[in-house]
Amino acid sequence: MKKREENGFVLLPIIVFLIIFLGVGIGFKDFYYMPVVVAFLISLLVAFMQNRKLSFEKKIDIIARGIGEENIVTMCLIFLCAGAFSGAVTAAGGVENTVNFGLSILPSKYIVVGLFIIGCFISISMGTSMGTIVALSPIAVEIGEKTGVNMGLCMGAVLCGAMFGDNLSMISDTTIAAVKTQGCEIKDKFKENFLIVLPAAILTGVIFLLMSKNTETVINEELSYNILNVLPYVMVFLGALTGLNVFIVLITGTVFSLIIGVITNNIKISEIFIAIGGGTINGRNISGVTGMYDITIISIIIACIVALIKENGGIRFILNKIKKRIKSKKGAEYGIAGVSALVDICTANNTVAVVMAGPVVKEISDEYKISPKNSASILDIFTSAIQGLLPYGTQILSASAISGITPFEIFPYLYYPALMAMSGLLFIRFRN
Questions:
Q1: 55 within some domain
Q2: Residue 392 CA to chain centroid, in angstroms?
Q3: In a domain, 82, yes or no
């Protein structure tokens, strides 16, 4: 059946999602009161009710082809493999040992900038900002309490480091979604993205260094670590950077983590499958593959919604509206940045924002001959930058809950997300 050229009305499912998600969040003063998957299911129902010229069977066929699209299937499988690696390396003690190793080698007067650097390494290795915040925040709280260093500053350093890897890590769900929706290689996106945000990271480190250079910190607890537990992170990072297939990297990293976990007695042979799948090991909650269920299901539902909207001319409508305001390739890149930021503001979830905005960004980049690695980088940078600055985002709310201070006490120290957005804009402005 011939697709409609343009139809703004078929965007109603997205509008319904935003009204429900934001309305419930504002009404209950909790943006996570409404499970995002429920909001998207309601949106999908609305999409099914549109365009009565298509039979129900035809609509099922359309969404089946949308779900079965190569990038969607690959993205979902990578999500699950990333969850397996995260679960295995966490169960093996990788997080605790990496944190203790970093704190052990850092001079005390550099402890705040050290929190930022350690956060960068953990997040780029784990691929999750939330995991980094949960791991580092208790230590940041202890430092703040024992030294009198501003607690907001300590937590800001942790959150900045967490957002560094959330955007850059080759096993981050936002990176995976960005490269798969734009059709580029992870290593190519990493190299492009890294060069854009490196100035922001360096400047953030300098700022934290200057703000904490007179701080003297004493941590009384023993910071024991086993360097073996850090190796899986290093191996995955180097493997992905050298261009190995991401599935090989993640599966190898998972196996290596399990072996180290057994050798160091952090994982029993009988707990191997719990570490991969998710559960409780030695009193620790391991998310594993199950921790990726939500984003995998959400990605599938979004693929269904987008398939129906695209079939009915909704994507073409968005593109035509955007293109009326775009006069050049540079303008198209600003458009991608704006769309990415706006969707994240509405969803308060940068992975969901990447998946939602991805198809539109791909159409814009194809139209204006923007390379996939550039469009993927811009998409990921601006969703991550906005996410790190949202007072109602998961990251800042979690840091607030752990530290016992309000999000607005942390907000003034969120230098990296703001500088990351500025670096992105300067990249667009001055790149040839």
A1: yes
A2: 16
A3: yes
CA-closest candidate to residue 88, choices 60, 45, 125: 125
CB 234 within 8 A of CB 253: no
Residue 169 lies in a domain: yes
Kindly give the interhelix angle for 70-91 and 173-182, rounded to the nearest 10 degrees: 160
Domain of 180 in residue numbering reads as 51-430
Q: Rounded to whole angstroms, how far apart are CA atoms 45 and 65? A: 18
Residue 378 · residue 336 · CB < 8 Å: yes
Q: What is the pLDDT of residues 86-144, one digit of tens each?
A: 889 889 888 778 777 766 777 667 788 888 988 898 888 777 787 778 767 777 877 77
Tell me whether residue 253 is in a domain.
yes
Find all residues with CB under 8 Å of 175, minimum gap 6, and list them.
127, 167, 168, 169, 186, 189, 190, 380
Q: Nearest Cα to 131, choosing from 357, 284, 281?
A: 284
Q: What is the number of domains present in the chain?
A: 1
Rounded to the nearest 10°, the torsion over CA 284, 285, 287, 290 is 130
Candidates 172, 191, 307; CA nearest to 246 is: 172
Tell me how far apart the alpha carbons of residues 21 and 348 are, in angstroms, rounded to a whole number.
10
